[in-house]
UniProtKB/TrEMBL annotation:
<dbReference type="GO" id="GO:0006979">
    <property type="term" value="P:response to oxidative stress"/>
</dbReference>
<dbReference type="InterPro" id="IPR011057">
    <property type="entry name" value="Mss4-like_sf"/>
</dbReference>
<feature type="domain" description="MsrB">
    <location>
        <begin position="15"/>
        <end position="139"/>
    </location>
</feature>
<dbReference type="GO" id="GO:0005737">
    <property type="term" value="C:cytoplasm"/>
</dbReference>
<dbReference type="GO" id="GO:0030091">
    <property type="term" value="P:protein repair"/>
</dbReference>
<dbReference type="InterPro" id="IPR002579">
    <property type="entry name" value="Met_Sox_Rdtase_MsrB_dom"/>
</dbReference>
<dbReference type="InterPro" id="IPR028427">
    <property type="entry name" value="Met_Sox_Rdtase_MsrB"/>
</dbReference>
<dbReference type="GO" id="GO:0033743">
    <property type="term" value="F:peptide-methionine (R)-S-oxide reductase activity"/>
</dbReference>
<keyword id="KW-0862">Zinc</keyword>
<dbReference type="GO" id="GO:0046872">
    <property type="term" value="F:metal ion binding"/>
</dbReference>
<keyword id="KW-0560">Oxidoreductase</keyword>
<keyword id="KW-0479">Metal-binding</keyword>
<protein>
    <recommendedName>
        <fullName>peptide-methionine (R)-S-oxide reductase</fullName>
        <ecNumber>1.8.4.12</ecNumber>
    </recommendedName>
</protein>
<dbReference type="Pfam" id="PF01641">
    <property type="entry name" value="SelR"/>
</dbReference>
Length: 145
């Protein structure tokens, strides 16, 4: 159980199982809370229509219809696909206070959410998500891109 969110992941694996399933960079981000280098991720400039799933467990997280160009170096979304798709918890690492975004199904680290930055979106939120934490499933073909 996560002591901050008070929830237990529905997809639970040992760290060894996660290491076997995920590539080293995926494991570092999803399971250890690392951040990929800005502008290095495969989905930063992606415009295809579809659903962004958690790369660790396959849960639906975001839809392309809420993705926007924030020019911050990571894919940005103004809202998750479902209010229960993600968990939010305080992150006081690196000498700052932020809000960490986790997959609600497996509690993998996805990125952070920021508010009040003045983006012209319906929520004024920016879910700044690591590409390596996501897998885009094309809405027409149903296959991962």
């Amino acid at each position: 159980m996560d002591p901050v969110t008070g929830t237990t992941p529905s997809v639970a694996k040992s760290e060894q199982q996660w290491r076997e399933q995920l590539a080293p960079e995926e494991y570092a981000v999803l399971r250890e809370g690392a951040t990929e280098r800005p502008y290095s991720g495969e989905y930063v400039h992606e415009k295809s229509e579809g659903v962004y799933e958690c790369r660790a467990c396959g849960a639906e997280l975001f839809r392309s219809s809420t993705k926007f160009d924030s020019h911050c170096g990571w894919p940005s979304f103004w809202d998750p696909a479902d209010s229960d798709a993600v968990l939010l918890r305080e992150d006081r690492s690196h000498g700052m206070v932020r809000v960490e975004v986790l997959c609600a199904s497996c509690h993998s680290h996805l990125g952070h959410v920021f508010e009040g930055e003045g983006y012209p979106t319906p929520t004024d939120q920016r879910y700044c998500i690591n590409s390596v934490a996501l897998r885009l499933v094309d809405s027409e073909t149903g296959s991962a891109t």
